[in-house]
Amino acid sequence: MADLTRSLFAPRRGDRPTVAVLGLGRFGSGVALELMESDCHVLGVDADAEAVQALNGRLTHVVRADSTDEEAMRQLSVHEMDHVVVAIGGDLADSILTVSLMRRFGTHQLWAKANDDRHGEILRQLGVEHVVHPERDMGRRVAHLVSTSFQDFVEVEPGLAMVRATPPSRLLGRDLRATGLAGERGMRVVAVRSRGTWLYPPSHYVLEPEDTILLVGPTRDVERFLARD
Q: Do 165 and 118 share a domain, yes or no?
């Protein structure tokens, strides 16, 4: 088994990246399937037979195994993966033990799901650079969409947002420099959808009623700016 998985998943220089997704619940399976769409080699691992069976034939390889078992993970060549995503949600101890094992492996590109702020803090203390809070982040996103006229909202990191929205009427017929959205206010329109096509607008671009803008800037500043009309 070790030889088989090593030949399948050992990192390939100049080829598609290899990713292990440990935990195949709703979040983990979603990540794994999206990675397949992104042309990655994906190894899915879960201790639950039903979760493994549900993804059989849909990932490069899917295995029933205990992600806290060092020997099992080495047999699957997880320590040689380009990226590892620890997507274990329900069991805090398993999440922490799995992350600790990945850290011992020296995994540099390590992502881990946090159930709450306390869990996230523990993961960061263990040295995980990429801590993901899917439920919290989705809750914030939906709240912004419900309470504003935004078409989409993504907080890139705490305090920095990317918003897709229709330009407020007070900005129409004015170029971006005159609106302060060419970087002067700490916010910038990085793309405009005009007549069905996304483009990267110059500072003299004049906003039209049918345009859609992609605005990046400090979260509160973006919210206040787009709320005014």
A: no
* CATH at residue 22: 3.40.50.720
Measured on CA atoms in the order 9, 11, 15, 16, is the torsion positive or negative? positive
pLDDT tens-digit profile of 158-190? Answer: 788 899 998 888 889 988 888 877 765 688 899
Of the three residues 95, 116, 136, the one that is the final residue of a domain is 136
pTM: 0.70
Domain count, the chain: 2
CA distance 130 to 86: 10
The total of other beta-carbon atoms located within 10 Å of residue 134's CB is: 16
User: 199 and 156, same structural domain?
Assistant: yes
- Under 8 Å between Cβ of 45 and 84: no
Question: Residue 164 forms beta bridges with which residues?
Answer: 152, 214
Under a CB-based contact definition with an 8 Å cutoff, are residues 33 and 40 in contact? no
Tokens 């801590």 belong to which residue? 131
Q: Is residue 3 part of a domain?
A: no
CA distance 132 to 134: 6
Count other C-beta atoms under 10 Å from residue 216's C-beta.
Answer: 19
Inter-residue contact 115 to 121 (CB < 8 Å): no
Dist. CA 77–CA 227, nearest whole Å:
51
